[in-house]
């Protein structure tokens, strides 16, 4: 066994020893949770200032726009998120190193990048689920604004029928923030920051234009038509995908039937030859 392999195999044990030493250090204090909280605040402040390999604000925006609080809970912040990624990387490395060093590195990479990949996947699923709601929202806003209802009041009325989820929660917080705080620009920025969705970006532009000029109907109609066209395209893609899956299944069944028939014919042929 080479020195490198010995060192890599000893690394999990070293990590465990250091973790144990940290626990003992915290345990010696009179108020261990206070010390732990103080350490967390210190690390949080350091990460706020340092941007080398970790940008606190960029990570915060990523977590907010991809619905980390909705999926995992409000306890998620950039520091805890980074700690989870490091822990998953250590677990992946520990599992993989028992096979070989290469799998240890692969497991470390998979563990480290699993949380952002998972958030990207869940955000895409959320966007697909929100698209019909956003289209309904645009249609309701058109009707309300055409009837002379102010834009913010129309928005407050329109989302009431939506099921509980990211979109309804965000719109509710947006309307509440405007009514109680009176800061439209800040509330609109917070709403836009909660999503990574082009149609939400367009909605924020429409709200801003409606506030500044009062002209939003044309944009609402145009974007509503864009969503309708996009949904029609997605429906066509789903239909084509279903047709491909059906074709492959039928081909597989036919191949299996042909294989069984050939196998039976070959067995029969060998049996006939054996009788001679």
Automatic annotation (TrEMBL):
<dbReference type="GO" id="GO:0005886">
    <property type="term" value="C:plasma membrane"/>
</dbReference>
<dbReference type="InterPro" id="IPR042094">
    <property type="entry name" value="T2SS_GspF_sf"/>
</dbReference>
<feature type="transmembrane region" description="Helical">
    <location>
        <begin position="82"/>
        <end position="99"/>
    </location>
</feature>
<dbReference type="InterPro" id="IPR018076">
    <property type="entry name" value="T2SS_GspF_dom"/>
</dbReference>
<feature type="domain" description="Type II secretion system protein GspF">
    <location>
        <begin position="144"/>
        <end position="266"/>
    </location>
</feature>
<keyword id="KW-1133">Transmembrane helix</keyword>
<feature type="transmembrane region" description="Helical">
    <location>
        <begin position="245"/>
        <end position="271"/>
    </location>
</feature>
<keyword id="KW-0812">Transmembrane</keyword>
<keyword id="KW-1003">Cell membrane</keyword>
<protein>
    <submittedName>
        <fullName>Type II secretion system F family protein</fullName>
    </submittedName>
</protein>
<feature type="transmembrane region" description="Helical">
    <location>
        <begin position="6"/>
        <end position="27"/>
    </location>
</feature>
<dbReference type="Pfam" id="PF00482">
    <property type="entry name" value="T2SSF"/>
</dbReference>
<feature type="transmembrane region" description="Helical">
    <location>
        <begin position="105"/>
        <end position="122"/>
    </location>
</feature>
<keyword id="KW-0472">Membrane</keyword>
